[in-house]
# Entry
Amino acid sequence: MVNSSMVTEFLLLGFPDLLSVQIALFYIFLVLYALTLTGNVLIIATTSFSSELHTPMYFFLSNLSFLEIFYTSVTIPKMLLNFIFKTNSISFMGCAVQMYLFVALGSIECSLLAVMAYDRYVAVCDPLHYVTVMDPPTCVVFTFSSWISGFINSTIHTTRTFQHTFCSSNVISQFFCDIRPLLNLACGDTLTTELILFVVGGAYGLGSFVLTLVSYIHIISAILKIRSKGGQHKAFSTCASHLVVVSLFYSTSIFAYYRRSSEDVTDQEKLTPVVYAVITPTLNPLIYTMRNKEFKAALSRMIGRKQPKIIIQRKNGKQFATAQIN
# Structure
């Protein structure tokens, strides 16, 4: 990564038009972050300790939960500290690392959402071959490929972005380091970098989106063939919830990245990343589990699992212990 910049640190502008409600924003984002961590940790713990959840769907869901924990931890803790201490500075290297991890984890999420949609497509549209198509080695390959490709995608964008010289300003009009705000600060022509963002990022992000969309189209088509109205309603209810999360994530991401860096950023547009960086990770655990009776039953068993009570008894002058489960 070439650092020819005159800037040694950046200032994260955050939400300057909401200075009067900074304390309220701190508590709102703190609650959202806590919900995200709690929900995703519960998913990982439940799927790990419940043998009946050792299936491809929950394997991918656990990976998504693991991802969301780090995805939100890249940006939210720094934002919360800025709310409290009013120090919006971030070092040049810290900004580069934050952007690298954020773009990498966001890219991986795109891939995992596509993989999870394909998993549901096979389960609904080709159930007889589901076990052979989505066998453990295949699931591992899909997941490993998602993580590796995400980091490769981020390496390309981060390297290109930080090869520019930042000399006009060091104020980033966002609450974290991201590609678009940084390109707005770059001196010289950024057209090549933007073209790479459009082509490489488009091939990755839009490719994942198309695969996700096609999978859900086939799933919905299969659901429409179900004769039972109750079965249709149940299936549509679950798919609709998943599609809401996917739509929020992709629509805001596409809007944020596929626009000219020279365009003025409005106050409303500064809030766009909040949707895919904060709100969507909070909704994911709820969407993917709250309507799932199998998961809720496993969670209830894990939380409600009672430890045996040891009772010491004496008989014929000898002591012995018995275990009793209440």
Observations:
- Strands lie at 9-12, 89-91, 165-166, 171-172, 186-187, 309-315, 318-324.
- Residues 9-324 form a domain with the Rhopdopsin 7-helix transmembrane proteins fold (CATH 1.20.1070.10).
- The first strand starts at residue 9 and ends at 12.
- The chain has one domain: 9-324.
